[in-house]
């Protein structure tokens, strides 16, 4: 058993025990944000009378649902950075009914030397955003890091901003995630969170990026850092360390970065992530981020499946994850968008059931998600070289409503019957048009309102103000 696999199994056991104990013993007082909008469907409840998780909304007050995939190029750097991302990615996303992409960008490419920002890299981001806009795909710009950055053979925080105090680092070429637990990597995170000059540099990098892309029609928001990690204190178990890091280091960092982004972009959504420990059913220790447009953005990965195991519904992982992950958005009154999810091997016998169970769970409490990853090949890739879905991943392509001009009462899809049903009360003023997105194939749309088919894979529902509307979409 590798170091990483051992750690993941250990975390799975420890975290699920901690999650069950927390669910039984803790009943934190909810502090909902004023004006929160009801969710699209009842979400899992972890304590009696739990408040609703608010929905994403746009400027017109329409309730939003995001469905899409990550888009990345981790291989190319410098002049070749982002060269593996093409317009085909966005054209194919839209053709399969997806209108959302989480675009990975790297601080080491943006700022290769202290204070020198790459205009070439910014232009490459511009080109990608233009492709997305042309294909009607909204983009979340993700400040990505894997194992901190290039100082450890990966991408993310520049080498010049990496401080290790001379602590050791041993590469794990067969299991890269184990490198997060090397002392040098953990210390580098501590310096990023605590050193005043690195704090300023990180904030300024975000200010430069946000200033450059603010107002672009494709930009939905900013994911402030991917899968942040940290350094456990002596004697701490991992769930305890994670909650302390989230409370004492990530929360102030997110508030600093939010201030930096808002100096350049007042409108976009800001996504904040917990540590990856939340994936094993441990509620986050994050505190409030003081901004009116914050989204909680956990990732949805299972330790055993990441290590190659098939889905085991009897293990209760999805249920434990859902109970844990709804705590933060209910307490602070923020929407949820899952930024990454999906197993590395979708061909295993249980994966059809996994995707059905996962989609049902995500529909209960999120305003959307981005699967990992839209690429053309094997492993995590959504599709093969021809663009056909890899096994079971076609189950992510469902009918849904990207925007609803009103308040959603319920929204559900039955993959067995191929029936999607949306029930909403139309707004009493403002926009009257609700948008539907349909996967490839034949779909019949009916509603007790006007249905307009605008293009392949698209439909609009036009309802009277204040009307109660039921929309039914049937395959075939």
List the helices and strands and how they pair.
Blueprint: H1 3-25, E1 63-64, E2 66-71, H2 87-95, E3 100-105, H3 107-110, H4 119-134, E4 138-143, H5 183-194, H6 196-213, E5 219-223, H7 238-262, E6 269-272, E7 294-296, H8 303-306, H9 317-325, H10 327-332, H11 351-365, E8 368-371, E9 400-404, E10 406-414, E11 419-426, E12 433-437, E13 443-447, E14 450-455, E15 458-462, E16 468-475
Parallel strand pairs: 2-3, 2-8, 3-4, 4-5, 5-6, 6-7
Antiparallel strand pairs: 1-9, 9-12, 10-11, 11-16, 12-15, 13-16, 14-15
Helix pairs in contact: 1-9, 5-6, 6-7
- The proportion of strand residues reads 15-25%
Order of helices and strands: HEEHEHHEHHEHEEHHHHEEEEEEEEE
Helix content: 25-40%
Spatial strand arrangement across the major sheet:
7-6-5-4-3-2-8
For the terminal residues, how far apart are their CA atoms?
A: 48 Å
As residue ranges, the low-confidence spans are: 1-47
Radius of gyration: 22 Å
Overall pLDDT? 91
Major sheet: size, sense and barrel closure?
A: 7 strands, parallel
What is the strand tally? Answer: 16
Structural class designation? alpha/beta
Structure description:
The chain is of the alpha/beta class. The chain is 30% helix and 18% strand. The strands form three sheets. It has a seven-stranded parallel sheet with strand order 7-6-5-4-3-2-8. Strands 1-9-12-15-14 form a five-stranded antiparallel sheet, with no helix packed on it. Strand 2 (66-71), helix 2 (87-95) and strand 3 (100-105) form a beta-alpha-beta unit. Helix 1 crosses helix 9 (317-325), helix 5 packs across helix 6 and helix 6 crosses helix 7 (238-262). The longest helix is centred in the middle third of the chain and has 25 residues, at 238-262. Mean pLDDT is 91; it is low at 1-47.
């Amino acid at each position: 058993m590798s170091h990483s696999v051992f750690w993941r199994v250990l975390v799975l056991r420890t975290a699920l025990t901690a999650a069950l104990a927390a669910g039984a013993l803790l009943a934190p007082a909810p502090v909902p944000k004023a004006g929160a909008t009801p969710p699209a469907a009842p979400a899992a409840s972890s304590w009696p009378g739990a408040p609703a998780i608010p929905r994403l909304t746009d400027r017109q007050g329409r309730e939003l649902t995001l469905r899409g995939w990550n888009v990345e190029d981790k291989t190319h750097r410098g002049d070749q950075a982002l060269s593996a991302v093409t317009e085909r990615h966005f054209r194919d996303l839209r053709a399969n009914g997806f209108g959302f992409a989480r675009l990975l960008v790297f601080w080491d490419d943006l700022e290769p030397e202290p204070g020198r920002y790459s205009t070439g890299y910014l232009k490459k981001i511009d080109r990608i955003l233009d492709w997305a806009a042309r294909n009607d795909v909204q983009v979340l710009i993700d400040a990505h890091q894997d194992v901190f950055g290039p100082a450890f053979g990966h991408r993310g925080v520049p080498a010049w901003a990496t401080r290790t105090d001379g602590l050791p680092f041993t590469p794990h070429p067969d299991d890269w995630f184990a490198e997060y637990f090397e002392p040098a990597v953990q210390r580098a995170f501590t310096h990023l969170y605590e050193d005043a000059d690195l704090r300023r540099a990180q904030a300024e990098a975000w200010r430069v990026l946000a200033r450059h892309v603010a107002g672009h029609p494709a930009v939905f928001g900013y994911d402030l850092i991917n899968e942040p990690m940290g350094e456990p204190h002596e004697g701490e178990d991992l769930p305890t360390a994670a909650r302390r890091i989230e409370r004492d280091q990530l929360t102030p960092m997110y508030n600093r970065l939010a201030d930096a982004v808002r100096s350049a972009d007042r409108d976009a959504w800001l996504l904040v992530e917990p540590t990856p420990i939340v994936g094993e059913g441990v509620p986050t220790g994050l505190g409030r981020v003081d901004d009116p447009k914050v989204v909680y953005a956990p990732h949805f990965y299972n330790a055993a499946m990441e290590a190659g195991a098939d889905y085991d519904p009897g293990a209760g992982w999805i249920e434990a994850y859902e109970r844990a992950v709804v705590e933060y958005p209910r307490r602070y009154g923020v929407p949820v968008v899952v930024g990454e999810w999906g197993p590395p091997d979708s061909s295993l016998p249980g994966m059809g059931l996994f995707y059905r169970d996962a989609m049902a769970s995500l529909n209960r409490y999120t305003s959307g998600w981005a699967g990992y990853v839209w690429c053309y090949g094997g492993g995590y890739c959504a599709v093969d070289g021809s663009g056909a879905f890899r096994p079971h991943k076609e189950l992510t392509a469902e009918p849904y409503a990207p925007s609803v001009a009103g308040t959603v009462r319920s929204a559900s899809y039955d993959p067995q019957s191929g029936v999607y049903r949306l029930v909403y009360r139309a707004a009493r003023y403002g926009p009257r048009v609700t948008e539907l997105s349909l996967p490839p194939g034949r779909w019949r749309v009916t509603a007790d309102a006007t249905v307009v088919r605008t293009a392949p894979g698209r439909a609009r529902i036009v309802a009277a103000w204040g009307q109660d509307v039921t929309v039914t979409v049937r395959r075939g």
